[in-house]
Amino acid sequence: MGVQHLGEVGLKQEIALLWRAIRRISKATLQNSSIGRAVLRFYAGGRIRIEDGGGIDIVGGGYINISGNINGSGDFEWTGPMSLKGAQSITGPTTFTGQMTVNGPWTFAGNGQITGNVGLTGDLNVTGGGRIKAGAVTINPSSGGGTIELGSSEIRGSGSGVGIFPGTGAAIITSEAGVRIAYLPTISSASTGLPPDTIHVDALGYLRRVV
Q1: From residue 119, how far is each of 46, 106, 122, 137, 154 by CA, in Å?
Q2: Sign of the dihedral defined by the CA atoms of residues 13, 19, 22, 26, in that order
Q3: Strand, coil or helix: 24
Q4: Would you say 183 and 167 are in contact if contact means Cβ atoms under 8 Å apart?
Q5: For the chain, where are the alpha helices, taking DSSP H only?
Q6: Cα–Cα distance measured from residue 186 to residue 170, given in angstroms and rounded to the nearest whole number
């Protein structure tokens, strides 16, 4: 087979055609391509851009290793077990549907609301001036020895005793010394025929101190 001599002009034309082909191949996207036992590398600001409905399918036990940041927007959907390790931060409304289990200490900061029945195993420790409210009933562990507020009435703990203080009227206070009725209404000795500093009980069972 003979060798074709193109001459200077023909050689320049062939070189130009070759360069155009190289440029066309370098600019073209990879279609129906396979890489085996090798690496497709992007560097110096290079990236992969997927558009017009394109995507990435990982099958057959494939994996993705990422060392760096992941930034994105839009919907994220995951099916199957998932494990996150390290510090996590979620900003914005979050909804959990299904059973949720938290193993280890946790902290909720801010106002919240629970709808539904709640079971508690162990102690509920209210600190920092906090209270427990249920309708008109308020349990206040920070007031004296602790109080249970029932509307305008209170049950107060004090030392080894307890006191029942209605909004108005007599209060019953117990202690190691005995039982005391404070603010007991009075009635005159003349109207009862009883000596002073005794107790009068009327037909309805109400107690009054005779003065």
Answers
A1: 55, 17, 10, 20, 27
A2: negative
A3: helix
A4: no
A5: 7-27, 189-192
A6: 11
Residue 49 has pLDDT above 90, yes or no: no
pTM over 0.70: no
DSSP state of 52: T
Q: How far apart are CA 19 and CA 13, in angstroms?
A: 10
Looking at every residue in the chain, the average pLDDT score rounds to 86
Banded pLDDT at 45 (limits 50, 70, 90) = confident
Q: pLDDT (tens digit, 9 = 90+) per residue, 152-180?
A: 999 998 778 899 999 888 999 998 889 98
92's tokens: 């914005």
Q: Considering Cα of 5, then 7, then 8, then 10, what sign does the dihedral take?
A: negative
pLDDT attached to residue 2? 53
CA distance 106 to 98: 19
203, two tokens: 């037909």
Tokens 């199957």 belong to residue: 80
Residue located via tokens 């900003």? 91
pLDDT the model gives residue 63: 86
Q: Which residues pair with 137 in a beta bridge?
A: 134, 150
Close Cβ partners of 183 (under 8 Å, ≥ 6 residues apart): 169, 170, 171
Residue located via tokens 């009227």: 169
